[in-house]
């Protein structure tokens, strides 16, 4: 009975809880392919989740915290305001993690938007090799030898998919992104064997930049792929993420993601962690 009474005593918190529940359930249903009808280009499920997140945003703004020139200053309810802000962030993160109602065109644009970051990271490999110890440079150069060709092919496929998001081009990207991912994973393992600590750190950081972009593109391609296609992609991944995980700098990855999306690093860290968990769960 006390729990029921608390609903009426703290309506704002109760409403927040309901909205988070709606957002979470909508995300899970969307992940399982449950649509419950369509609204425009989206689904009823994704619409419900998005509306729940939007209403949480309105709740998170506490009118009492806005100063009124006609009244003396009053200390705002920082605890309530902070809690609502945290709940809103949780709901938005759940939306990011679970809801995938984006169209193929939107995903194609996101993939293409990652290609400049990918190409810049690949181009930086040559300058990195020149900074390494003379005895270590050949190891690094051999490990990253195929990056240019793999990058150029994936970029051309991404642009072709944006122009014409067909199943045949998607299949080509599915195969190529896995090939590139395997090259990157192999390079991480090889550069990790460099003895000179300074050379090893530079080499790993350089490969890491490429790995972050490739992983982002892999996740985007995966989001528009069928379960059967994802299973084939995962089966073709001989070097799993678990094998290279000890050599991945997640702070560096988060900084790259934050810079790409112009968002706080804290949010980017969460996204990187969620992406890694999702890829591992999928078998990569």
What do these coordinates show?
There is one protein chain. By secondary structure, the protein is mostly helical. The protein folds into two domains: 2-98; 104-282. 75% of the residues lie in helices and 1% in strands. It has helices spanning 2-9, 11-31, 44-60, 78-98, 104-131, 137-143, 147-163, 167-191, 197-223, 227-235, 241-244, 250-261, 265-282; strands spanning 38-39, 42-43. It has a two-stranded antiparallel sheet. A hairpin with a 2-residue loop joins strand 1 and strand 2. Helix 2 runs antiparallel to helix 3, helix 7 runs antiparallel to helix 8 (167-191) and helix 12 packs across helix 13 (265-282). The termini are far apart.
How many domains? The number is: 2
The total of helices stands at 13
Oligomer: single chain
Write down the overall geometry.
globular
Report the average pLDDT across residues: 77
Number of strands: 2
Portion of residues within helices = over 70%
**Helical/strand content category:** mainly alpha
Report, as a whole number of angstroms, the end-to-end distance: 48 Å
Major sheet size, sense and barrel closure: 2 strands, antiparallel
Helix-strand pattern: HHEEHHHHHHHHHHH
The radius of gyration over CA amounts to: 23 Å
Strand order of the largest sheet: 1-2
Strand content: under 5%
Low-confidence stretches: 38-42, 60-101
């Amino acid at each position: 009975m006390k729990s029921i009474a608390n609903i009426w005593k703290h309506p704002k918190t109760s409403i927040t809880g309901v909205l988070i529940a709606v957002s979470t359930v909508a995300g899970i249903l969307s992940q399982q392919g449950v649509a419950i009808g369509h609204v425009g280009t989206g689904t009823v499920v994704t619409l419900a989740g998005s509306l729940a997140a939007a209403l949480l945003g309105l709740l998170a703004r506490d009118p009492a915290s806005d100063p009124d020139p006609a009244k003396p200053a009053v200390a705002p309810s920082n605890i309530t305001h902070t809690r609502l802000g945290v709940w809103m962030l949780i709901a938005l993160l759940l939306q990011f993690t679970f809801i995938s109602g984006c169209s193929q065109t939107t995903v194609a644009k996101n993939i293409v938007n990652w290609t400049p970051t990918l190409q810049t990271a690949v181009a930086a490999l040559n300058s990195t090799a020149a900074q390494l110890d003379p005895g270590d440079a050949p190891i690094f150069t051999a490990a990253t030898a195929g990056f240019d060709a793999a990058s150029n092919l994936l970029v051309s496929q991404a642009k072709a998919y944006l122009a014409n998001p067909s199943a045949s081009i998607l299949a080509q990207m599915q195969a190529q992104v896995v090939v590139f991912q395997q090259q990157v994973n192999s390079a991480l393992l090889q550069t990790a064997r460099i003895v000179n600590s300074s050379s090893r750190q530079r080499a790993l950081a350089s490969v890491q930049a490429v790995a972050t972009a490739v992983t982002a593109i892999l996740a985007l391609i995966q989001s528009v792929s069928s379960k059967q296609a994802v299973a084939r992609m995962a089966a073709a991944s001989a070097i799993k993420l678990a094998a290279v995980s000890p050599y991945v700098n997640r702070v560096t990855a988060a900084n790259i993601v934050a810079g790409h999306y112009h968002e706080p690093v804290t949010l980017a860290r969460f996204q990187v962690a969620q992406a890694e968990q999702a890829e591992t769960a999928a078998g990569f």
